[in-house]
Write a structure and sequence with these properties.
- The chain has about 250 residues and is an alpha+beta fold.
- It folds into two domains: about 90 residues, no CATH class; about 100 residues, no CATH class.
- Helices cover about 30% and strands about 35% of the residues.
- The strands form three sheets. A four-stranded antiparallel β-sheet has the order 3-4-5-6. A four-stranded antiparallel β-sheet has the order 7-8-9-10.
- A hairpin with a 2-residue loop joins strand 7 and strand 8.
- The longest helix has 18 residues.
Length: about 250
């Protein structure tokens, strides 16, 4: 809840005194500023994540058969928390180590059974098993079956529609506006601001949710004009608890 100062007049010993008092504002705001925002800010965490993804892709080289990739991941200390797809020509794992999670996407040649392409991507749409492994930090067994409804969780499946949505949001959240415009515009489009990771004179970062979709909105401002110079909308990889809870509430209603 936002606070504002007002002046209160009180009588002490027959003398009237005016003192400032802090009272709740009439306007409540349930999207609180995030504590320790660098844990959740995609802008903050992307470089370290990119380095880790490149290291994984180099180790998980092409030209190997399927069993190699499970062995190699486990040797590097990664848990395979979900197998989204396990087809002759395509294998997709969700993996976890500590507080990091990625999706490993491997294409195979149907004749040689050897990998032709390996992609490691930030794991935006995580299964319950992956979420649980991140939250609890416990070792879990290799999944005994593939993920039900994998298209809900596969980054490869969902990325195209996500990119279209990101572009649409960036067009609506045009540059050249002051800070309060962006909050209004998002709410007008049906998005809920679930977390405010940063709210500085030159930078604002929101986590937003609509349905089962979440993005991070990153807005740079000119310190003199207070108008936006750059707006980026990215897939929200590292979500706060408030964002996770908003997504779960949506799923529970379905």
């Amino acid at each position: 809840m936002k606070m504002h100062k007002t002046v209160m007049t009180i009588a002490i010993g027959g003398i009237l005194l005016s003192v400032p008092a802090t009272l709740p504002s009439a306007v409540a705001d349930d999207a609180k500023t995030t504590s320790n925002p660098s844990m959740y800010s995609d802008r903050d965490r992307t470089k370290a994540s990119k380095d880790e993804k490149e290291k994984l892709e180099q180790t998980l080289k092409t030209g190997e058969e399927k069993s190699f990739y499970r062995r190699e991941l486990e040797k590097m200390g990664w848990q395979i928390t979900s197998v989204n797809y396990d087809k002759p020509d395509y294998l997709e794992y969700e993996i976890v180590k500590g507080k990091s999670s990625y999706e490993v996407q491997i294409d195979f040649d149907k004749n040689s059974h050897k990998a032709t392409k390996v992609d490691v991507t930030a794991n935006a749409w995580k299964t319950d098993a992956t979420e649980r492994a991140l939250r609890e930090g416990k070792k879990i067994d290799y999944p005994n079956k593939t993920t039900a409804n994998p298209n809900r969780f596969s980054d490869r499946d969902r990325m195209k529609s996500a990119k279209n949505q990101e572009e649409k949001l960036e067009q609506a959240l045009k540059t050249g506006e002051e800070k309060d415009f962006y909050r209004r515009q998002l709410e007008k489009m049906g998005w809920k601001v679930t977390s405010v990771n940063y709210d500085k004179p030159d930078y604002v970062e929101y986590e937003i949710v609509k349905g089962d979709t979440s993005y991070e909105v990153q807005i740079d401002f000119d310190k003199n004009s207070h108008k936006a110079t750059k707006v980026d909308v990215v897939t929200n990889i590292w979500k706060t608890d408030a964002t996770e809870n908003a997504l779960k509430q949506t799923q529970a209603r379905r």
